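Per your request, structure below.
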């Protein structure tokens, strides 16, 4: 059984008997009004630790002052006031039948942790009472929920919403992070009876869930969950992963099996996409099978609104591009030649639709206690207190940086990692400003949250096409987005040279996004970059802690595009493009004054990501074999120092 009911009444204080009587009276009233899932229980530490499993919590207190109370309340309160776990999904009410001091403390703490308060008893009953429609029939709804670390799963989820609504304009689709499963639509939770859920989940780290799916990941995997937890829910899962790692698509596979174990009904097969081979090789076929599955459930039409059209065979690049020009290969694109090879044309209705610009739909993950109150959504601005260059030869520059996390409340350990939220660089923002017709970009969303350096996806290409006044530029974007006709063109002009979205924007003089918000909404989100901790928090004598964390990183520089012409039978010399890492370049430039012995006021937006499995053994005498293919030696520097 769960440690707390979905609608819980918790009672305690100095006069427990009086609080219990009031709680039981309230329970009878709730049950009489149809709130069948309400249950009463004494306050406890376990209840405080399980608040994220509840939908609503009513705390009934009867105490005096804010001093020591009965043991159960004291244990509940000690946990609650130290907890950094957000309870944004929770509706809370605190009823104090004592002197009111305890109620004020608990109410304030619930508010600090993000709950939605209700102050009046009658309003509590009304909030929990099922609506007439929910008691007579199950309301069907379609939800696309994503667990995304780098933004790929989120982009696919939003594209699925656009595609569904294009096929059935009357169908309304909700897209949210997986950790928002408790949110209500028309009075019912997103993953509740009557819901049809499309889950798109990536796997990060050593088989871990992304930050915005971690809370649900822990919740649904608890072995104590009842076998009918998700009864009445229909679902399917698309997992994203990388076959270079042992636990390929681990999160997607586990969710697919676990949903079935706790009563949900799988309506479409599990899909697994491999980033190492290119996600679209598995994502596109899986989506092509999803539409008839949804049609079979009666949730979308038979496809007559947007019938799938074969856009012809892949057009050879040599047949539609010339190389008698400098710069980007796409400048040599000839739409007339492309259309001669692909007579089906570039009908806009057959191509990805534009996603609506939207604000960040990110739910802060429930934090591990050691991580403090900061996350990728709300990073800590860390001072730089030290830096040195470890190597700078043969084209490889390795930098050591020290950040002070003391004020963040985080307590790191060797094996953890630190996520860094860098902004877009000057070159990309300059290109965006030019396209927008402004002197400089002012939107924080475009500067910090939209990824101008990402490769333009098909949905981004479609958005840019819609903003092009020049027909040839518009057709270039549509041709790159066409499948399968434009597949080889996309490979030669975008994938191999690692073309960035802002470079394409700069190459389309007629492309004029209507606003900074619209451009930010079309782009994928700028994700955090993670770096292994390369230090120990212990002082040299091991007697105390210091929250100064060290990171080591190689400044990323490489060449892309080599072999493009040979691979696509093009004449002329191969094009080679110098590329650099966004975050490592930004960090390197940021700390250069520190390397020269100066003090800087610039801070590094970051947050701690604790490791669950990558840690030293408890026995300090245990022999350790350290293997770091991919991670390098940085985390082992921290292990050895510890």
């Amino acid at each position: 059984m769960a440690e707390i009911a979905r609608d819980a009444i918790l009672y305690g204080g100095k006069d427990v008997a009086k609080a219990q009587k009031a709680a039981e009276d309230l329970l009878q009233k709730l049950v009489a009004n149809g709130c069948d899932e309400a249950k009463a229980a004494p306050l406890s530490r376990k209840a405080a630790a399980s608040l994220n499993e509840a939908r609503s919590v009513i705390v009934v207190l009867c105490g005096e002052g804010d001093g020591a109370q009965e043991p159960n309340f004291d244990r509940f309160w000690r946990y609650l006031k130290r907890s950094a776990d957000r309870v944004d999904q929770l509706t809370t009410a605190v009823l104090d039948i004592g002197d009111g001091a305890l109620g004020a403390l608990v109410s304030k703490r619930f508010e600090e942790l993000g709950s939605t308060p209700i102050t009046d008893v009658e309003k509590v009953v009304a909030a929990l009472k099922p609506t007439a429609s929910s008691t007579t029939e199950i309301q069907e709804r379609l939800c696309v929920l994503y667990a995304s670390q780098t933004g790929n799963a989120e982009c696919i989820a939003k594209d699925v919403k656009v595609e569904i609504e294009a096929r059935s304009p009357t169908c309304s689709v909700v897209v949210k992070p997986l950790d928002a499963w408790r949110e209500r639509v028309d009075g019912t939770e997103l993953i509740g009876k009557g819901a049809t859920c499309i889950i798109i989940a990536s796997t990060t780290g050593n088989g871990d869930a992304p930050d915005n799916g971690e809370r649900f990941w822990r919740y649904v995997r608890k072995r104590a969950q009842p076998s009918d937890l998700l009864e009445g829910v229909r679902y399917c899962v698309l997992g994203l992963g990388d076959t270079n790692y042992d636990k390929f698509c681990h999160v997607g596979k586990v969710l697919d099996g676990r949903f079935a174990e706790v009563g949900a009904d799988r309506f479409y097969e599990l899909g697994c996409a491999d980033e190492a081979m290119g996600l679209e090789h598995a994502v596109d076929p899986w989506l092509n099978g999803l539409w008839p599955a949804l049609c079979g459930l009666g949730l979308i039409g038979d496809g007559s609104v947007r019938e799938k059209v074969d856009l012809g065979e892949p057009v050879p690049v040599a047949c539609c591009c010339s190389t008698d020009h400098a710069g980007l290969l796409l400048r040599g694109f000839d739409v007339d030649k492309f259309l001669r090879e692909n007579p089906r044309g570039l009908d806009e209705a057959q191509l990805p639709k534009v996603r609506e610009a939207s604000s960040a739909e990110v739910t802060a993950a429930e934090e591990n206690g050691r991580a403090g109150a900061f996350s990728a959504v709300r990073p800590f601005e860390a001072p730089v207190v030290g830096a040195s260059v470890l190597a700078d030869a043969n084209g490889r520059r390795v930098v050591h940086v020290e950040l002070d996390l003391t004020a963040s409340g985080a307590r790191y350990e060797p094996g953890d990692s630190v996520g860094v939220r860098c902004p877009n660089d000057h070159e990309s923002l300059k290109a965006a400003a030019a396209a927008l017709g402004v002197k400089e970009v002012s939107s924080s969303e475009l500067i910090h949250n939209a990824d101008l350096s990402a490769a333009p996806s098909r949905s981004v290409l479609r958005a840019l096409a819609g903003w092009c006044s020049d027909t040839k530029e518009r057709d270039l974007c549509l041709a790159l987005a066409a499948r399968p006709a434009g597949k080889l063109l996309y490979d030669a002009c975008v994938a191999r040279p690692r073309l960035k979205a802002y470079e394409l924007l700069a190459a389309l003089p007629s492309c004029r996004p209507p606003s900074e918000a619209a451009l930010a909404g079309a782009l994928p989100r700028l994700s955090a970059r993670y770096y292994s901790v390369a230090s120990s928090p212990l002082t040299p004598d091991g007697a105390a802690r210091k929250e100064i964390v060290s990171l080591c990183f190689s400044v990323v520089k490489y060449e892309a595009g080599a072999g493009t012409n040979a691979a696509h039978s093009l004449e002329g010399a191969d094009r080679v493009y110098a590329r650099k890492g966004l975050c490592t370049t930004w960090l390197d430039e940021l700390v250069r004054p520190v390397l020269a012995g100066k003090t800087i006021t610039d801070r590094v937006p970051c947050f701690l990501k604790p490791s669950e499995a990558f840690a030293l053994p408890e026995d300090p005498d245990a022999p350790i074999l350290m293997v770091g293919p991919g991670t390098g030696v940085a985390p082992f520097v921290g292990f050895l120092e510890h």
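Residues 199 and 237 are 5 Å apart (CA to CA).

Regards,
D.
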